[in-house]
């Protein structure tokens, strides 16, 4: 699961869910390294996010900033944890915003549905890598 989360070729296959096509996936997987994902949504418009890795514990935890490029003042901190138990990996994603307005804007963007689609694709890729 961790490999599918951190490998650009694999991220391109799951990150956009069913909402478009990931066209750019850049990953400099090290503390202080940057990441950037861009997708062309089904409506033909571009959506881009970027951030910086703050903490990396391989196969266990990634903490990074996350900035939606259309709203750079809304920087969030995202913590992703991977817990393997009995051959299955549980992924937990915690997104922390600096205020309620940014959190609500993120939620109102449709991110929950998109995130679920992406997680469904991520699961399929992780299973295929076994």
Q: Please, could you describe this protein's structure?
A:
The protein is globular. The longest helix has 18 residues. It has a single domain, classed as START domain (Alpha-D-Glucose-1,6-Bisphosphate, Chain A, domain 4). Strands 1-2-3-4-5-6 form a 6-stranded antiparallel β-sheet. Helix 2 packs across helix 4. It starts with a helix and ends with a helix. The protein is α+β, with helices and mostly antiparallel strands. Strand 4 and strand 5 form a beta hairpin. 12% of the residues are buried.
Concise synopsis of the structure shown:
The protein has 130 residues and is α+β, with helices and mostly antiparallel strands.
Secondary structure: elements and pairs:
Blueprint: H1 2-6, H2 8-14, E1 20-27, E2 34-41, E3 46-57, E4 61-68, E5 76-85, E6 88-97, H3 100-108, H4 111-128
Antiparallel strand pairs: 1-2, 2-3, 3-4, 4-5, 5-6
Roughly how much helix do the residues carry, as a percent range? 25-40%
Instruction: Tell how many strands the DSSP assignment holds.
Output: 6
The level-1 CATH class:
Alpha Beta
Described by strand count, sense and barrel closure, the largest sheet is: 6 strands, antiparallel
The average pLDDT is 91
Overall geometric form: globular
As laid out across the biggest beta sheet, the strand order is: 1-2-3-4-5-6
Alpha-beta classification: alpha+beta
Strand content: 35-45%
CATH superfamily: START domain
Q: Count helical runs.
A: 4
CATH topology: Alpha-D-Glucose-1,6-Bisphosphate, Chain A, domain 4
Q: Which value, in Å, is the CA radius of gyration? A: 14 Å
Corresponding CATH architecture: 2-Layer Sandwich
How many individual domains?
1
């Amino acid at each position: 699961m961790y490999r599918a989360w951190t490998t650009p070729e694999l991220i391109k296959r799951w990150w956009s869910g069913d909402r478009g096509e990931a066209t750019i996936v850049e990953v400099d997987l090290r503390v202080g390294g940057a990441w950037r994902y861009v997708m062309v949504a089904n409506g033909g418009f571009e959506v881009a996010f970027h951030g910086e890795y703050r903490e990396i514990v391989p196969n266990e935890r990634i903490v990074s900033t996350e900035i939606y490029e259309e709203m750079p003042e809304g920087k969030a901190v995202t913590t992703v944890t991977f817990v393997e138990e009995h051959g299955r990996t549980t992924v937990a994603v915690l997104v922390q915003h600096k205020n309620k307005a940014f959190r609500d804007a993120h939620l109102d963007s449709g991110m929950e549905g998109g995130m679920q689609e992406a997680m469904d694709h991520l699961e399929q890729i992780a299973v295929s890598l076994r």
